[in-house]
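Memo to structure team: turn this sequence into structure tokens by end of day. - J.P.
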Amino acid sequence: GIAPCPPVIKAGRERDNAADQFLTPVELVDLVAVLAQMPDCRAIGATGGKAAEILVSMLPQKTAAPKTGETIAFPYAGRELTLTRLPSTSRAYPLSLAKKAEAYSCFFQAAGLVE
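Reply from structure team:
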């Protein structure tokens, strides 16, 4: 029930590190094509702020990116979807591993993947 998919296929580095703030998206995933392959998909989890911003930029309606832990609902390609912004998995993100795990667990429960 889980399908990992990055929102960016190609990115350019503005500096010599992988920090999101210094990455420029060059090629985005074809979200319509990806979701067409997953007709039962109802929940998307974005791992971090940059991923959430990029995903909402692909939506046909102007939508603000959710804050960490927030979920937004929206119609997309003939179905209702939710987008939850999860904490970044980066060690540089200042949240304990236990808190990150709790956020992911809540997302998986809300998506109906675990009890």
